[in-house]
C-alpha cells in the first residue's frame, strides 16, 4: 500500500474498512498462577484501512469479541476521520453503555483504539512515539513468568536467563497455587538471580492475613514487589497489606482496570504503591495515557502490564512510568507473529524509529494455523 504523508491531510482519511480475527496459540508448557491455569492464549487482531494504509491493533482476550467488534463497534469508526481518535473512543464507550464498559467490551475497544493510533502515525509517516511525544528513548523491562506449574529447576532457568541473557534488573514469579510451597520457591528464585530485584504475584489468591504472613517471609529473600496479594476488587484489603508490608516492598495492582474509574478508586483508596495499567484492556493507547495522567496527579508510579510490543511506544511517552512487563507468553507470541517485535537488550527495549506507527506488521501466513474459525 502507498503510505500517506502529513501533506495529504488526515481530515481526508476516513476509515473505510475494519477487519478483526482471533488466534488461539498453545503455550509452550502448562501454565498456572494463584487463581487460574491455562494451556493457550487468544490473540485478537484488528486492522483498519484509511488513506491507502493499514493500522494494526490487538488484545489478549476471548475470540467472542470478534463478533462484538464487527457487529457493535465497527460503526463507531467506519467513515469517520482517522484524526478524530478521542471522538472514536467516546463513541465506542457510549456504544457499550448497556453492555458494560469493562471486561470483553473494554478489550475490544482497546484493540480498535490501538489500531487507530497506529494508522494515524503511519499516515503522518512517523513512529507512534513521535506522535505521542517521547519522554524516554527506551523502557526498562522486568522478566515475568515463573508459573506455579513450573518445577523449581524450570523456575530457576527462566528467571536466571532473563537476568543473564536479557540483562533484566528485575524478574517476577507467580505464587499462590500452593502457598505453603512458595517460601521455598522464592528462595530458589533468589539463588538463581543473585542481586536482581525479585517480584511475586499472587493474582489475588490470598487473604489479608495470609498476604501479611507471606510478605514477612518473602522479605527474608529481598522481595521488593508484591502484586495483587489480595483481589484487586478489595481496595481496603490492598491498603491494609500496603500499610503493614515490610519496608521496601511495593504493593501493586491495576492490571484488571478496564475504565478510568477502576484506576481512580485504587488511587483514591491509597491501595497501591505502584499502579499497573494494560493498554490491551483499559481502552488502548487513549485509556493508558489517561491512566498515566491519573498516576501523575496522584504522584504514584505506573507500570505497564504485559503485551510489551503493544505498549512500547506509549510507555516511552507516559509520565511516571517505572517499567514494562516482559511477559513470557506475550513475548513468545509477538516474536512468532509480528515483524518488528522488540528485542530485549541490557534490560530495556526501544522503539525502532525507522518504522512508522507502532513499528509492527502482522504475519498473517504464520498466524493462519492458529485462526479461530
Poorly predicted ranges: 1-9
Q: How many extended strands?
A: 14
Q: Please report the distance between the alpha carbons of the first and last residues.
A: 27 Å
**Helix amount, in percent?**
25-40%
Question: Which percent range describes the beta-strand content?
Answer: 15-25%
Task: Name the average pLDDT.
Answer: 96
Order of helices and strands: EEEHHHHEHEHEHEHEHEHEHEHEEEH
Discrete helix count: 13
Q: CATH homologous superfamily of the largest domain?
A: Enolase-like C-terminal domain
> Which CATH architecture of the largest domain would you pick?
Alpha-Beta Barrel
The first-level CATH class of the largest domain is given as Alpha Beta
For the largest beta-sheet, the strand count, sense and barrel status come to: 8 strands, parallel, barrel
User: Quick one: overall form?
Assistant: globular
What would you call the structural class?
alpha/beta
Question: How many structural domains does the protein architecture include?
Answer: 2
Radius of gyration equals 20 Å
The CATH topology of the largest domain: TIM Barrel
Major beta sheet, strand line-up: 4-5-6-7-8-9-10-11
Amino acid at each position: 500500500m502507498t503510505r500517506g504523508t502529513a501533506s495529504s491531510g488526515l481530515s481526508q482519511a476516513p476509515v473505510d474498512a475494519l477487519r478483526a480475527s482471533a488466534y488461539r496459540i498453545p503455550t509452550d508448557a502448562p501454565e498456572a498462577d494463584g487463581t487460574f491455569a491455562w494451556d493457550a492464549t487468544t490473540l485478537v487482531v484488528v486492522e483498519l484501512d484509511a488513506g491507502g494504509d493499514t493500522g494494526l491493533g490487538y488484545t489478549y482476550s476471548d475470540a467472542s469479541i470478534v463478533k462484538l467488534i464487527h457487529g457493535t463497534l465497527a460503526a463507531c469508526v467506519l467513515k469517520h476521520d482517522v484524526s478524530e481518535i478521542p471522538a472514536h473512543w467516546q463513541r465506542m464507550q457510549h456504544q457499550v453503555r448497556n453492555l458494560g464498559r469493562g471486561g470483553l467490551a473494554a478489550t475490544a475497544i482497546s484493540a480498535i483504539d490501538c489500531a487507530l493510533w497506529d494508522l494515524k502515525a503511519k499516515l503522518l509517516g512517523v513512529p507512534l512515539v513521535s506522535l505521542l511525544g517521547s519522554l524516554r528513548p527506551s523502557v526498562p523491562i522486568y522478566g515475568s513468568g515463573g508459573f506455579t506449574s513450573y518445577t523449581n529447576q524450570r523456575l530457576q532457568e527462566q528467571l536466571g536467563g532473563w537476568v543473564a541473557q536479557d540483562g533484566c534488573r528485575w524478574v517476577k514469579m507467580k505464587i499462590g497455587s500452593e502457598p505453603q510451597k512458595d517460601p521455598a520457591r522464592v528462595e530458589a528464585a533468589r539463588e538463581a538471580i543473585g542481586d536482581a530485584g525479585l517480584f511475586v504475584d499472587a493474582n489475588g489468591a490470598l487473604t489479608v492475613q495470609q498476604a501479611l504472613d507471606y510478605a514477612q517471609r518473602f522479605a527474608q529473600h529481598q522481595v521488593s514487589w508484591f502484586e495483587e496479594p489480595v483481589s484487586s476488587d478489595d481496595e481496603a484489603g490492598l491498603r491494609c497489606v500496603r500499610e503493614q508490608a515490610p519496608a521496601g516492598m511495593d504493593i501493586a495492582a491495576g492490571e484488571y482496570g478496564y475504565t478510568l474509574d477502576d484506576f481512580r478508586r485504587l488511587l483514591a483508596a491509597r491501595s497501591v504503591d505502584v499502579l499497573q495499567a494494560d493498554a490491551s484492556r483499559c481502552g488502548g493507547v487513549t485509556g493508558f495515557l489517561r491512566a498515566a495522567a491519573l498516576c501523575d496527579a496522584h504522584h504514584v508510579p505506573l507500570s505497564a502490564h504485559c503485551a510489551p510490543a503493544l505498549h512500547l511506544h506509549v510507555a516511552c511517552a507516559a509520565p511516571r512510568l517505572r517499567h514494562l512487563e516482559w511477559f513470557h507468553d506475550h513475548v513468545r507470541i509477538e516474536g512468532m507473529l509480528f515483524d518488528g517485535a522488540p528485542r530485549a537488550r541490557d534490560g530495556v527495549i526501544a522503539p525502532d524509529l525507522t518504522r512508522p506507527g507502532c513499528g509492527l506488521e502482522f504475519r498473517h501466513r504464520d498466524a493462519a494455523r492458529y485462526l479461530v474459525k
